[in-house]
Design brief:
heterodimer, A: 563 residues, mainly alpha, two-stranded antiparallel sheet, two-stranded antiparallel ribbon, 18 helices, 66% helix, globular, B: 689 residues, alpha+beta, 7-stranded mixed beta sheet, 6-stranded antiparallel beta sheet, 22 helices, 22 strands, 17% strand
Amino acid sequence: MDKYDVLQLLLYLSALLTFSYPLGKYLASALDDSSGLQRRLFGAAEKLIYRVCSINPAEQMGWRRYAAALLWFNLLGLAAVFALQLLQRALPFDPNGAGPVSPALAFNTAVSFMTNTNWQAYAGETTLSYLTQMAGLGVQNFLSAATGIAVFAALTRGLTARRTQGLGNFWADITRITIRVLLPFSLIAAFMLVGQGVVQTFVPDKVVTTVEGERQVVPLGPAASQLAIKQLGSNGGGFFNANSAHPLENPTPLSNFLEMLLLLLLPAACVHAYGAMIGDKRQSRLLFAVMLSLWAAGLAVAVYSEYYSAPAALGANLMEGKETRFGVMNSLIWSVSTTCASNGSVNAMHSSLSPLAGGTALFNIMLGEVIFGGVGAGMYGMLLFVLLTVFLCGVMVGRTPEYLGKKIEKREIQMAMAGILAPGAAILAGAALSCALPSALASLSAKGPHGLTELLYAWSSASGNNGSAFAGINANTTFYNVGLGIAMLIGRFAVILPCLAIAGSMTTKQVCPPSAGTLPTDTATFGVLLSAVILIVGGLTFFPALALGPLAEHLLMLKGVFF
Amino acid sequence: MSENKFWNRELISGALAGALLKLDPRRQMKNPVMFVTMAVAALVTGGILAGLPRVSGFDAQIALWLWFTVLFSNFAEALAEGHGKARAESLRKARVEITARLLAEGHEKKVPASRLRKGDLVVCAAGDFIPGDGEVVEGIASVDESAITGESAPVIRESGGDRSAVTGGTRVISDRIVVRITADAGKSFVDRMIALIENASRQKTPNEIALTMVLAALTIVFLLAVGSLKLFADYSAAAAGQDLSGTVTVPVLASLLVCLIPTTIGGLLSAIGVAGMDRLVRRNVVAKSGRAVEAAGDIDVLLLDKTGTITLGNRMAAAFIPAPGVQERELAEAAQLASLSDETPEGRSIVVLAKTKFELRARELHPHEAHFIPFSANTQTSGVELLDAEHRPLRKILKGSIAAIKAECAAFPPELEAAQAEVARAGGTPLAVMDNGRALGVIHLKDIVKGGIRERFAQLRKMGIKTVMITGDNPLTAAAVAAEAGVDDFMAQATPESKLARIRAEQAAGRLVAMTGDGTNDAPALAQADVAVTMNTGTQAAREAGNMVDLDSNPTKLIEIVEAGKQLLMTRGALTTFSISNDVAKYFAIIPALFGALYAAGGKAGPLAALDVMRLHSPQSAILSAVIFNALIIMALVPLALRGVKYSPMNAQALLRRNMFIYGVGGVIAPFGGIKLLDMLIVAAGLVK
């Protein structure tokens, strides 16, 4: 690690800290509909949508109605993307003649984009038409991000509600988030990316002759418009198969920096939005600090592994698969951020990371995508951990636990445990099942501990709604398409529904004023405990699996054995 | 029952038998952690039986210790119940074979107490046991309540007023009363108390249920983690071209599972709950539900009666303030004379003050030289008339309220007027003294705040609990006493209605309110409060309205109840943290034991052998010592579970840091030492390869 690496890291951090705060305030006022400026700018468009869909944005929904609206809305999205893939040959905007997609793969892809996972068992440039990419995946990129933020908003309203039954209106939330936040910022980002050379065209792929005289197909398409929301909305599904390691998706160091920034920007802004919505910035600052520390800890392990541990064993940095144009540091920041933030885009293949760096990426996902996490999803996942921590601390000090003045009781704990443990259970069950099936094991490209890591990574990526691939595993088989699809559904809705249920039961609770007997949740002590709970739950669940995967590989590497 | 009697022989043998009886799967179902442990133990045992006659000594030892884990947990619960049972037994003895004298249509009829119904009238004369809970409707009697309170001095019970409640099983010592039965047989106070402390009707409290849920969820995750580990191990073995089927066996995986699931807290959870109730009973408090005990730990506001709780029941003379031209000694002498026959504590305190201040001995007055004027509500005065040899009045000394004396005497000096106002302002009660129509001065009667109560309130404040003093006094007096006692707030001129309104207001603001009371007019407020402690001397109505009864009738005990509630929750929290922290060391013992040889090449240890930071002797010794540690730690923590984690008043943050350090950090470190030690012992004893 040299001074330029440090400089890049500092530049990245300061940009993140600078821009996430105002964006968070902006997001909060969009969710509260409290900004006159926003209403003047976007009110007309929203009113049109409300009128066409006959939505009354002022109508309050209880948690069951909110959840039902959300489920129907997502099911509709799933059906649309599924149908588009099967019918794309008969539809326009298919200049490269991509044929119909197999039903299993279409299911996997539709679930993947609907759940904000963006796991890609296909290669974008060869499998999908421009129409499917734009009207199917592109639209879901926006709507799945909006869904995550809506759940976050509903949970926040439940935690702070004073004598009301409502969690807000799902339709109004989705509309406002999309129109006021996602669309405008994606538009700005898309223009900046086009300025850096990301392609945006309906022209079919070009066949060129290279200077060496070889014939080469240059894939084209409307990439920039999708790329912006892919990074901003923690989607991560690349237009091209190589994702942001593809030169037409990530052409320059500046575009790389921009994409990396967008990756964590909105998730980080959600934390600030939380503070603004509950009217207590000390709470959000603490959560931000906890997330940033866990992020930094992950990066530190990755840096140690790449710069010190691997070279000690090898005599040189591991450069295979790294983003050589931008350097190892950028690959590491990206890999740690994308796994923390449930984004899933990559600018280097994670399979090529040294064992501990790859293990860190894996562990980040296993922790439940709460270190900033997906847009909205990171915050609501984190709040489940907060509730669990509050409960454990409460019994430690002999008082029924309270959060934001509301008592945490049986039902909240039940739901929080379900939401925290469901993705982990899906990871273990899926990976174990794959180990039991020889046909599933045949998809692995590597042997030994590295193969196990590939397998764990695929299931973690799906269950955590991350979507990044370790690469090396051939996931386009019926078993993986269906299995990972189910894991994605569990990872998404087995967390969302408990969150909404908690929001529902919290709305009716009375707020008690804090006393000296109340445990404050905005102190360093609480922050340390929260981090400990997150790490311990993840660690205890996955230690045996990680020991046989990345840990064994790392220890073997130190002995000079590689995979 | 003192604390060092945990291990009394009788209780232990009872608990051992109880531990075996509790192996019934239906009972274990209630506790998911221990149920899984038992199922796993049965599975391993089944495997051994299926493989007969070849038995692996190692597997057999594992099976044995898994069963011990379950038995130790059962033992802890049975021991806790044993303490309660021992107490219940003495209560039950008091209750058996009571014959009631039922009063029907004016005649007495002898019926067994068990046939009594609500509303029946029974007669109890001296020597009779009172057959059931009830209310005195006629007569007055002294009653021996030592069977339930342990207090040997008899108490007075009389019809009407606030001392009308009687408890079944207590004995009338003198006189005759008629009692209206207020509880059907089998549902009396003592029955409920017995059922609660015997754990029969102890329902899980909300917090206990929530914790059970967390433990169950963790158990499921560990089931998955261990189950999937088997398949990951198979994959790894195939990839390495090794055969791990000899190491990764069912008994070994079962050991890992039982070590990981929170058996420590799961095994002691029920014992903690029972012991929590028992701790209250030992303090002579009976809670009607476990929920009330937990709620006590959450209290935000404490409403306390001034008299008897904050101040000693009586006012004491604190100073003599003479009128102009009167010596203080003269005033003291006159006040003493006027109070000689006054048997009230106030009167006695005047005699005592005169004695200590001026060494005035209380004179012995004979009836022929003095005529005593008793206090009457009409005149508001009392005093003495000294007589000459012919029995003619010589000198008349009166003391009484300012208004009454003013009316009696010729002139009341303005200086005295000022002095009495000063006394009232300071929270005292002024009494005036006059001698033959001449006002001599004012006596300052003062509320005496109980020693140490100020410190108690300071502790409560640290715990985040606000204290409110309730008194019928005027605001001036109330404010002065409140300031002296150090309460946070006071309610002067309180009425039952204003008390109820105050509780409702506090609750509307989201606070949990506790109060003590005894009178029937307290009943609505008691019913409204979240935690309501009724004095055992109180009326039946009050006892029904409250959710705890203090057998000692000591209002200060509310503070101890709050601490007991907190202690109960904290003990659960501390052991949960400890239990989960332990898992770190167990992973470090078992994972290298299972996979130390995986990917080994060239006769050297495999990569994961590096995790064996404890340098344990062999894989078998490592696994066995982890399982044994896991079982023994339950036994080691039984005293802590029964006694409860030490509670000292401090704010939540400091308390959390302390407990996290002891049980969290300690919980990570302790098993490393414990497992290493057991490993050395096992090897020394030659139990494994």
